[in-house]
Amino acid sequence: MTLTTKAAVLRQRAAARPYADSRPLSIETVALDPPGPGEVLVRIAAAGLCHSDLSVINGDRPRPLPMALGHEAAGVVEQLGDGVADLNIGDHVVMVFMPSCGHCNPCAEGRPALCEPGAAANGKGELLSGGRRLHDTEGELNHHLGCSAFAERAVVSRRSLVRVDPDLPLHEAALFGCAVLTGVGAVVNTAGVRAGQSAVVVGLGGVGLASVLGALASGASPVVAVDLSEDKLALARSLGPVQTVNASDPDAVEQVRALTNGGADFVFEMAGSVRALDAAWRMTRRGGTTVTAGLPPPEAALAVNVVSLVGEERTLKGSYIGTCVPSRDIPRYVALYRQGRLPVDRLLRGVVVLDDINAAFDALADGKTVRTVIRFD
User: Are residues 63 and 148 in the same domain?
Assistant: First the structure.
């Protein structure tokens, strides 16, 4: 039986700012098919606003339209498709925006974040099954990263869900599906930061500040945070023993190098900017590693001095979803949160309702917020 759900639908990219006036996301009542084999119907409780959503709205990351947006979310299982035997109705789940098939080469190597069928489905706006479950009067709507979570309900692949304990507040649980997986995972999994090694984070959005938390939890020292916003720098300092540098200072790179004794062991670029990545590269010491999880426009390119890459044994690494294994990492990060070692709730700076989503994206685009969450409950 087909259901209906309210959802935020993007029909045209690159709308004029402010979004509160142009309203690129229209709140519509759309049809939602029941879950097919291997799929699950989830009642969404909370969904976070992320730069990956904003980059679809502003056109930096082209996706097939029309599309129901949203990819960082948590909710409650309402219906199970055929073959789903390891979840129960009423379970609390976190959505993961890269479904993993479990059979392709990356999945077999323990790298589900690089799942090939998952990436292909996401690029086409489909679920992992190859189908779409959202419709309006004109036809099918595309799914955003297999989730389409800016909605009251969503049908997703079982491979897009991780069960969490029901006593974890769902508006906090939502952050673990993207900001925490990506930011903490870049530090713990991609870089493998060890206690006593220096770590610098460039760009203090939700993912960047999660990286700061990950560096602190890993025992990195010193930890340096870099951003243009004094408010975000103050928030970073409040999280623990963090030194800060304003990226607008002409000598910001030199300041970071002085704080890290000539350059950091690890520098994480989380701003999605080639300029920020270039600065991160210059902040990294000889023999050090620069990690980027930012997603600039596809045509963006970085010029690297190959002599220094070789002669200084430098490493430049990409990190997608924090090189995560979601079923392993989300429970681990939740456990650290409960121990007080990963205060993810500090990243949550605002709660809105679905009808206010366009204005909330204005705040995100202006750099005025870290993580805003839409609550449906």
Answer: yes
Is residue 64 helix, strand or coil? coil
**Are residues 173 and 209 both part of a single domain?**
no
**Dihedral of CA 304/307/309/314: which sign?**
negative
Q: Do 201 and 158 sit in the same domain of this protein?
A: no
| Co-location of 190 and 259 in the same domain | yes
Distance of CA 317 to the CA centre of its chain: 17
Q: For residue 136, what pLDDT band results from cuts at 50, 70 and 90?
A: very high
Q: For 63-83, give one letter per residue: b (16+ CB within 10 A) or e.
A: beebbbbbbbbbbbbbbbbee
88 lies in the same domain as 29: yes
Sign of CA dihedral 23, 145, 320, 185: positive
Cα separation of 201 and 25, whole Å?
31
Per residue in 164-203, pLDDT (tens digit) is: 999 999 999 999 999 999 999 999 999 999 999 999 999 9
User: CA-CA distance, 31 to 34, in Å (whole number)?
Assistant: 10
Please give the distance of CA 124 from its chain centroid, rounded to a whole number.
19
Name the maximum alpha-carbon separation found in the chain: 64
Residues 51-63: tens digit of each pLDDT? 999 999 999 989 9
- Average pLDDT for 79-88: 97
- Domain identity same for 146 and 7: yes
d(CA 195, CA 225): 17
- Comparing CA positions, the residue from 228, 224, 345 lying closest to residue 285 is 224
Question: Do 173 and 165 touch, CB atoms closer than 8 A?
Answer: no
Question: Which amino acid, one-letter code, is at 109?
Answer: E
Q: Domain containing 131: what range?
A: 3-177+343-375
Domain count across the chain: 2
List the one residue out of 169, 158, 26, 37 whose CA is nearest residue 102: 158
**212 Cβ contact list (under 8 Å, min separation 6):** 183, 201, 204, 223, 225, 236, 239, 240, 242
Type and span of the H or E element at 116: helix 116-124
